[in-house]
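Subject: sequence -> structure tokens, single chain

Hey, anyone have a minute? Need the predicted structure for the following. Not urgent.
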Amino acid sequence: VISPYVAQYADTITLRAFDAVEVHRTDAEYPGWYWCTSNGGMSGWVHASYLSGTVGTIAAIRDYSAHELTVEVGERGRVMERLGGWVFVELSDGRVGWVPEVHVQVAV
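Reply:
Had a minute. Here:
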């Protein structure tokens, strides 16, 4: 982690494959992300790659959690997925979640 980030949302959407999802709007800052609400009433940003469509009521095509991490400079971990300006990471302390890609440096 090269700069700190504070998670913006506490209770976020979690989906299982085939769950029904209502798509509301696209994210102007991060293309490919959509504000969605699950049947359980939880909302959050979901990347299009997890959705069967991007308009109306659709289905999740794979399991997903919108959980964000609060991170500090110097924390280390493993990038598990990169999508539309965000990375899904597993930190060395065992925490997993999304962080904006600009806050991490990926070693090659």
